[in-house]
Each structure stands twice: as C-alpha cells, then as structure tokens.
Design a protein that fits this description.
By secondary structure, the protein is an alpha/beta fold. It contains 13 helices and 10 strands. The chain has a 5-stranded parallel β-sheet with strand order 2-1-3-4-5, sandwiched between helices.
Amino acid sequence: MTPKVMIILGSASDKKIAEKAIDILETLKIPYSLKVASAHRTHEKVKKLVIEGTKQGVEVFIGIAGLSAHLQGVIASYTYKPVVGVPVDVKVSGLDALYASAQMPFPIPVASVGIDRGENAGILAGQIIATLDEKVKNNITKLRKSYHKKVKEDEEKLINSLNEQYLNKDFLKNLSSEYEAKGENKENDSNTESKNKKTPLVSVIAGSNTDIEIAKKTCEVLDELNISYDMNILSPVRHPDKFQEYIESMKDVKLFLAVSGLSAHVTGAIVALSEKPVIGVPCYNQLNRMNSLLAMINMPPGVPVGTVGVDNGENAGILAGKILGISNKEIESNLKRLKQKN
C-alpha cells in the first residue's frame, strides 16, 4: 500500500506530536509512513526521503520539528507536493519554530498549523487529499460530526453537574439537534443547486479593503497557474449572515484562501462553516503583525488553517497550486515552470 502522507520528525522526541497526526490519519483511513530525519544533522536523508517519496506517490508531507524548525522548509524545497508544518514547543513557547515554519520565502510555502497541533496537521492533510478522494471526504465529514457530538455531550455533563438555584437547565435544550438537522438539509439543497452552475476552483476572501492588495498578489499567482477563482471582500464580523451565505454558495470550490489582518476572524469563520482546506494569509495591521498571525495559525483541535507568512499572498497562491496540482497535471506543470523562473 503506497502511503499518501509521509510524516517526517526532526527528532524522535517529537513522537507525541506525531501520534496526534497518526490517530487522525488512522481515523480517516489514509495510508502513511513515518520517518525521523534532521534537516541539519541528516540533510541528505531528508532530501532522498522527499524526492523518492514524491516519485512513489506521496501526496502530502507533514514536517514536525521544534527550535529553529528548518525541516518543514527543507522538505518543501525538494517537492511540488503540499507540505504541512507542525512547530513544536521546545524553547520560548515554540514561537521560534512557528516563525521558522510559517515565514517561508516565495515560492516555497509551508502550510503551518499551530504549535504542537499534530492532530490539525493530520486533518489538514486529510482535507487536501479529500479534494480528489471521495472516501476521504466522507470520512472528514464523519470526523466533524464526532466533534459536534462531543461538544453536545460535554455541555450536558457540565450543566448536569451544577445545582445552582437560578440555572434553567431546559432553556433552548433542543437547539443543537434542530440546528444540525437544518444545516444538513441546507447543505444538500446547496449541492443540488451548485450542480447546475460552474464554480471556480478557489475562493479568495479578503477581510477588509485594507487587505485587498495582498489578495491581489495571491490572485496574480493563481492567474499565472491558470487556476480559476472568485474574489470577494467580506467580513464575518460586520456581515455574518452575508458571509455565511457566500461560503454556502461556494460549496463546490476545492479550497478557500483568506487574507486578513487584526484578529483574523475570516479564517476561523470559514473553518466553522466548511470542511474544505483553508489557506490563511495574516496581514500587517497592529501589534507588529503578531495578532493576525497567532489568531490564524493557533486554531483549536479539529479546525486547522494552513497559514503562510505575514503579507505573503504569493505563497498562498503557490500553496493552492501545490494542493490542486496533486490531481491536475497542467497546474503542476505551471507550478514547476513558475518555480524555475523564480
């Protein structure tokens, strides 16, 4: 069985983080391989693993490393396949590894997830493979439903453990089940309607007018790769209902790409409403860029955002090309041509 995902650890001490990704891949029934190789101590081994793995059919690489965390970038430099990076907390709360993973130069992106978030790396890898594999897509849906069930069970346990005098335990008790049923019906209706119209491969969403210049750089790369897209400026905070309607209208896109500054609620809103892969571009605004980067990359378990560097819209476009190029040889060829030019 040829692995679709290769997990490479910079050190065997990162085992616990890798196990989080492994548990997800097992749940999603995605074959994988596991290797230990250091970008600095065994550079040639990393190179050979990535080149041979790519030739043998690996579709997504997951790099897990701490400290200066160059492993993810080295993997990305030797393959046209998407690379998911997991920064590990070894020193300074893992921020050194996070910056090294996310802040990659053009045109070598790494889809970075949060510090120690191995499970989110597994889910993002699964979402990427689900763009061309219907079975994995269905397994992603089942996984998301299990998270909904757990939240409901946790709520019931919490409320039943309290005996406060003014606590109304029955208030809006049936809201969750009614909401989930409505959501499923709405999704089915939308899928029926979307079959009658052609949708783009990518949806690009800028959170505000101040983010539009970065979004345009992303679209320029998508144009060069001949990837169809829809671009919109829309805030989930200022216009939540309109935002949800738009996401639902884009159910047939392969992935979402969000460009946002400040606390970057755009990516969080998309992952709440969709099971498709989400690429995030944090933008400079306030607090020396830290707020948008950290709010975008450090997502909770179950809802990953593949985050690229601050203001690096071009790398987001390249990453979209790497994901779509798995099943589209024309896009992969365009990607190779663009990389060689740069």
